[in-house]
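Work Package 4 report. The design task specified in the project plan requires that, given a folded chain encoded as structure tokens, an amino acid be chosen for each position. We show below one input record used in the internal validation round.
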């Protein structure tokens, strides 16, 4: 009976394409640190809360770090590794260079956790918890973060360059990029809603400001004023022009008005297969919130290292 049950369970996972099972068959669980580090959630929450009070944008940056970690060979803290003599890490890969941020915040959280429960909590799990806490602080939904990921002992600049989607992609390329991670187009649309917070550089939206036709003309003009044809690569603009530090559904409402900041954003509402979902989330933020939570859990389940694979890094920037 038990055997039949677990067989059935396995079948359900395989059929639904959920990758909740790690590379070595161990599942992540919200209770992973219950006995080994009961304070983990309160320590991360307090730290994220204090940091965001000073700088709300950091919530966006932390959320994005988890995404960029998970898309490159699984949620294994690889993005946090500095370059060393063995490999060139992910920090200078095009999608991250001069763009990904929040590494110091992760270091500070790790230092606190090393005091409370040495060598127990992985850097990959810190990213997953900080992403959730950031979302909550800025007014978004909450979810139970599954834990038990271990940290990689390697990182790959090339993999980061290839696997993290670029803002010039069209809808079919975005769908393919997410599918390669076991994520659906529903996940793509909901997770893109993370662009309700945070900033992008002129380098990321220049082509949209000058070359796209599915853009509100006044919006395009205002982007062009700040983001010249050449230079000014690092001038920033809010991904959600109306409420850049509130996690809400204005991202989707902007898309309905052709005011998505990135080309990839507007691709989600450009007479294609994802229009219906964008309209749904624009009309009903609770539907967006529900799907965002689900999709974040799914993204957090991408190929975790569990069991004896990987390690619990002591310093998130370095292999032990
Ligand atoms: C769908 C494909 C995606 C593309 C093409 C994309 C692309 C980008 C780009 C180009 C930026 C601006 C970077 C810069 O100019 O420095 C950005 C920022 C951001 N992205 Fe995405 N992204 C995608 C999906 C996601 C997902 C799934 C999440 C999280 C669940 C996310 C969260 C963020 C956040 C929060 C920011 C702002 C970060 C900050 O202010 O520090 N993005 N994204
Ligand atoms: C990263 O950015 C720096 C400038 O801050 C630049 O010198 C360097 O060439 C960039 N690296 C890559 C790999 O693009
Ligand atoms: C989307 O982009 C890919 C890769 O650049 C290209 O091969 C494809 O034709 C594009 N699809 C559409 C519908 O434009």
């Amino acid at each position: 009976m038990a055997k039949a049950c677990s067989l059935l369970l396995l079948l359900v996972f395989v059929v639904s394409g959920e990758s909740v099972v790690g590379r070595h068959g161990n599942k992540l669980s919200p209770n992973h640190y219950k006995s080994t580090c009961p304070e983990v959630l309160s320590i991360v929450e307090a730290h994220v809360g204090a940091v965001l009070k000073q700088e709300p944008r950091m919530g966006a940056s932390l959320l994005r770090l988890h995404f960029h970690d998970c898309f490159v060979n699984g949620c294994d803290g690889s993005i946090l590794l500095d370059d060393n003599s063995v490999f060139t890490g992910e920090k200078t890969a095009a999608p991250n260079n001069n763009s990904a941020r929040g590494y110091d915040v992760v270091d500070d959280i790790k230092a606190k956790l090393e005091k409370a429960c040495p060598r127990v909590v992985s850097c990959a799990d810190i990213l997953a918890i900080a992403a959730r806490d950031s979302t909550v602080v800025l007014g978004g939904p909450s979810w139970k973060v599954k834990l038990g990921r271990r940290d990689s002992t390697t990182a790959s600049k090339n993999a980061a360059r290839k696997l993290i989607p670029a803002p010039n992609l069209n809808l079919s390329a975005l769908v393919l990029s997410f599918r390669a991670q076991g994520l659906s187009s529903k996940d793509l649309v909901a997770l893109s809603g993370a662009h309700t917070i945070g900033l992008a550089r002129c380098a990321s939206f220049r082509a949209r400001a000058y070359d796209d036709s599915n853009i509100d003309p006044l919006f395009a003009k205002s982007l062009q004023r700040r983001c010249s044809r050449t230079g000014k690569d690092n001038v920033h603009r809010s991904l959600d022009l109306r409420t850049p530090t509130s996690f809400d559904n204005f991202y989707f409402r902007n898309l309905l008005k052709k005011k998505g900041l990135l080309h990839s954003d507007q691709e989600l509402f450009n007479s294609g297969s994802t229009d219906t979902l964008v309209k749904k989330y624009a009309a009903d933020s609770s539907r967006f919130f529900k799907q965002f939570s689900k999709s974040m859990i799914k993204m957090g389940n991408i190929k975790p290292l569990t069991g004896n694979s990987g390690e619990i890094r002591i310093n998130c920037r370095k292999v032990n």
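The beta strands are 199-201, 236-238. Validation will be extended to a larger panel in the next phase.
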